[in-house]
Design brief:
Layout lengths: L1 E5 L4 H12 L3 E6 L13 E5 L5 H8 L4 E4 L12 H21 L3 E5 L27 H19 L4 E6 L1 E3 L8 H10 L5 E3 L2 E6 H14 L5 E4 L2 E4 H8 L10 E3 L1 H18 L7 H6 L9 H7 L6 H14 L4
Parallel strand pairs: 1-2, 1-4, 2-3, 4-5, 5-6, 6-10, 7-9, 8-12
Antiparallel strand pairs: 9-11
Helix pairs in contact: 1-6, 2-3, 3-4, 5-11
Length: 327
């Protein structure tokens, strides 16, 4: 079996590519000309240069392919030009699904996000059936992923064999960019988080997310969504797991939301003036008002999905950061 993986140079995409390699798939990766290719080292992979905005390159990449794992996405919070998010996440998804349909690809696994999943008002974990609409999406990243998922669902309703997976908060090795989540782990490990806000995340090892992709290909129902998550943890508990891995004490100061939001506005204003970047964004702070807790019960029941303890994910992430000389 031959698979094309988009986003294989990125965090989740590289983990999916490694999982496919271990399962003896033939690998092809769609890679932009200027991409950082460190995550492809050691993989037996046919690299095809292309772009989600270039339909001709997508048709070339999909020639002779049995399966498409569309993992590529623009995952940024507080992007200065949000049009780029929609171009990659929405129109890029539309382009590659059309190309896969024309190429006769037998099955597509589309990587969405729990960003598209609703959160119950009572604070209980969200599931694939929790209602959510575009108006519920905070910020352009979430809006773009929501709209991209609608493109994938529409393709499935039209008869294309598309299965959707919704990873929660992946942690582990290979976050070269890093993603906003990876930046959180790096900052915590480097002692750059002296305080925390009262929020929560669902933590999962990136390799378990990758294994879930293969299970979705094998057992997922067309047109269905599957949350690929792990364990719900408060941010203070996440920091308490990271701190001992680097010989630090976890922060004990809890900052109220009302104090953090003005800091985010100020940081974004300063970044615009200087042309630099900021780790704290208004979009990120607004998202932190809700605890991002989710249930993977459907994936467990229908796919046979499982996950390892979150502590393992943080151990592997910190070990990788050390190997990269980042801490």
């Amino acid at each position: 079996m031959k698979a094309l993986v988009t986003g294989a140079t990125g965090f989740v995409g590289a983990a999916v590519a490694r999982a496919l390699g271990r399962a003896d798939w033939q690998l092809r990766a769609l890679v932009r000309a200027n991409s950082d290719r460190r995550n492809l080292q050691g993989l037996a992979v046919d690299v095809v240069t292309g772009d989600l905005g270039d339909p001709d390159s997508l048709r070339r990449a999909l020639t002779g392919v049995d399966a498409l794992f569309h993992v590529a996405a623009d995952y940024r919070l507080g992007a200065r030009d949000p049009r780029q998010l929609y171009a990659v996440n929405v129109e890029g998804t539309r382009n590659i699904l059309r190309a896969a349909q024309a190429s006769g690809v037998s099955r597509v696994v589309y990587t969405s996000s729990v960003a598209t999943i609703g959160l119950p008002a009572d604070g209980s974990p969200g599931s694939e059936t929790t209602a959510a609409g575009l108006k519920d999406m905070i910020g352009h990243y979430k809006r773009s992923k929501f709209q991209a998922e609608q493109v994938a669902l529409e393709a499935a309703r039209g008869g294309q064999p598309v299965v959707i997976v919704n990873p929660s908060t992946p942690i582990g090795p290979g976050d070269v960019k890093p993603t906003p989540t990876g930046q959180l782990v790096l900052d915590a490990a480097a002692g750059r988080m002296p305080a925390y806000v009262d929020t929560g995340l669902n933590i999962v090892h990136v390799d378990d997310v990758a294994a879930g992709h293969l299970l979705a290909f094998e057992r997922g129902r067309v047109g269905e969504r599957y949350i690929l998550g792990g364990e719900d943890l408060m941010l203070r508990d996440i920091l308490a797991l990271i701190a001992p891995l680097v010989g630090r004490r976890p922060p004990r100061i809890r900052l109220p939301y009302a104090a953090v939001l003005p800091l985010a506005y100020a940081a974004e204003f300063a970044a615009r003036l200087t042309g630099g970047s900021t780790r704290i964004t208004v979009e990120g702070v607004r998202m932190a008002r809700k605890r991002m807790f989710f249930s993977s019960a459907k994936a467990v029941r229908e796919l046979g999905y499982h996950w390892r303890p979150p502590a393992r994910a943080f151990e592997d992430a910190v070990a990788w950061l050390r190997d990269q000389g980042l801490i």
